[in-house]
Amino acid sequence: MSNRILVVDDESSIVTLLKYNLEKAGYIVETASDGQEGFDAVLEKKPDLIILDLMLPKMDGIEVCKALRLQKINTPIIMLTAKDDEFDKVLGLELGADDYMTKPFSPREVTARVKAVLRRSYVPEEEMTQKGKDHSYEFGPLQVYPDRFEVFLREEPLEFTPKEFELLIHLMENKNRVLTRDQLLSAVWNYDFAGDTRIVDVHISHLRDKIEENSRKPQFIKTIRGIGYKFEEPKVI
After folding, report:
1. Which domain holds residue 66?
2. With DSSP H G I counted as helix, E B as strand and the rest as coil, what are the percentages for the chain, rounded to 5?
3. Angle 198-211/162-173 helices, nearest 10 degrees?
4. Is 0.85 surpassed by the pTM of this model?
5. Which side of the chain, N or C, has fewer Cβ within a 10 Å radius?
6. Residue 187 belongs to some domain of the structure
């Protein structure tokens, strides 16, 4: 079954370009021309991925992203922006976008990023069976089930976006190993961000807010100053 992509952009030329190239790559493409229409389309069409422009009529991309995440809708979002503005990018990521692209962009770049995000947010059922549905990580009060996309802290379920979940799994798989920001970019985002490691810091902050008792004094995800991050199991006193 083909993945369904929702493109939300008020520029008809951008919509036409994205629709043509994504359908050529085998995806089913739905479109919306303003933020409110896009938000409603997510609820109705239930896409597998959203390409969301930042500057939209009625509701801008930031508002749409925030509203979706508040409703616990964790569909992957790639945000588009015409401005090469660090504030916009970081704000979008902080509100739950998984990735961003700055206009202008090439059709090949769009297709590659869509494939990368979908590949890392979807585990085929046969692959899940091969890995074993009960495969889990347990560190103190934190339990993670990679194949079920489930995380529990003191037996309470937590909500994660696909990228947050993937980053957490990668850190756990490399427990006690210091990982640089560039290594995390390569492993989790699967393409070159040209040194834009702020995306890693934003997602680490999200993880800490969710799994740490005190995000300012993290017990699980430690900062290794000047290098990167390391996942540790909290010491039992």
Report:
1. 4-119
2. 45, 20, 35
3. 90
4. no
5. C
6. yes
Q: How many CA atoms lie within 13 A of 96 on its CB side?
A: 21
* Residue 237, domain member (yes or no): no
pLDDT per position as a tens digit, 139-174: 989 999 988 888 999 989 998 887 888 899 999 999
Token code pair at residue 202? 């934003």
Q: Residue written as tokens 């997602």?
A: 203
Query: CA-CA distance, 97 to 101, in Å (whole number)?
Result: 11
How many folded domains does the chain comprise? 2
Residues 113, 99: contact at Cβ < 8 Å?
A: yes
- For residues 4, 159, 182 and 121, what is the CA-based torsion angle, rounded to 10 degrees? -30
Domain termination site, one of 119, 148, 180: 119
The token duo for 54 is 């930042």
Residue in 178, 160, 159 with CA at minimum distance from that of residue 221: 178
| Cis bond before residue 104 (omega within 30° of 0) | yes
Contact 81, 100 (CB under 8 A): yes
Q: At 212, list the tokens.
A: 């740490």
Q: Are residues 137 and 113 in the same domain?
A: no
Boundary-marking domain end, from 66, 87, 119: 119
